[in-house]
Amino acid sequence: MNDTVPSTRVNQVRERLRAGRAVFGVMAFEFFTPGLAPVLAAAGAEFVILDMEHSGVSIETIKAQIAFAHGSGIVPMVRVTACAHHLIAPVLDAGALGIMAPLIETREQAETLVAACRYRPEGRRGLGFSVSHDRFTGGSARAKMQAANEAILTIALIESARGVENAEAILATQGLDMGWLGHYDLSDSLGCAEQFSDPRFLAAERRLLEAAVVADRPMGFVAATGDAAQLALRRGFRCICIGHEVAVLRNALTQEFAKARKGVPDAP
To answer: What are 163-202's pLDDT values in tens digits?
Structure first.
């Protein structure tokens, strides 16, 4: 391999967030084709979060999607099924530049996430090289470890009443890059499922955002539309997904089919 090409990739999303900027991407649940990442990149996405929690997708598919994302110039991140070392390690070695761990409710869980994602002394990530994450190259392991520690984005998905109660401790965890509000699960946990204007939900969201400001951590959110993303930005979120790809496609087609059928009589 050309010596001028680094073996470990730079995470531009992490750099932009650390510089105080906003970033935009998409979650992916279903359409894991070779064209997904290029289409997202062409649309202006800066990252994709590949979901493993609800999709049932295999590690082989995730490895391919990560490669497609790198080739398309967007940052691949993965929501794993649980915050456990053995679930995070293969995804990192496949080349993911970010890990979202679901249902983070305690500082100890946030520390487990960080430890799985960082090499020593920042964490306890296992050493495996000449694989996808270091572009199958040789060379110094120490240099790769240091570069990887600078590249991996650690995301705590806070989506329960207990998580909100511990928000300050979670977000202050050393090595944690950001928090993410899981609004559907949080509303359900609070007893007001899908009622995002309920005072209980609004109070929980406010507490999360205030804790993030104190801890100097950006917060992430899934917004259904660009207008909803603008509202989220004004509330204080800086890492925003414009829906997930199934909902975006379905909603866009629903609107266009409605326009196409306007004035067209139903068939007899």
So the answer is: 999 999 999 999 999 999 999 999 999 999 999 999 999 9
Task: Report helix, strand or coil for 50.
Answer: strand
Bridge partners of 157, per DSSP, are: 180
Chain CA centroid to CA 91, Å? 13
Q: What DSSP assignment string belongs to 53-114?
A: TTT---HHHHHHHHHHHHHHT-EEEEE-SSS-HHHHHHHHHTT-SEEEES---SHHHHHHHH
Scanning the structure block, which residue is given the tokens 């073996």? 7
Confidence of residue 267 (pLDDT cuts 50, 70, 90): low
| Token pair listed for 233 | 């930005």
Q: Which residue has the tokens 């050393």?
A: 174
Largest CA distance in the chain: 73
Tokens of 98: 């970010």
Query: Which residues are bridge partners to 98 per DSSP?
Result: 77, 153
**What are 146's two structure tokens?**
């240091």
Phi/psi-derived region of residue 73, left when phi > 0, alpha when psi is between -120 and 50, beta in every other case:
left
Closest among 22, 29, 23 to 249, alpha carbons compared: 29
pLDDT class of 265 with cuts at 50, 70, 90: confident
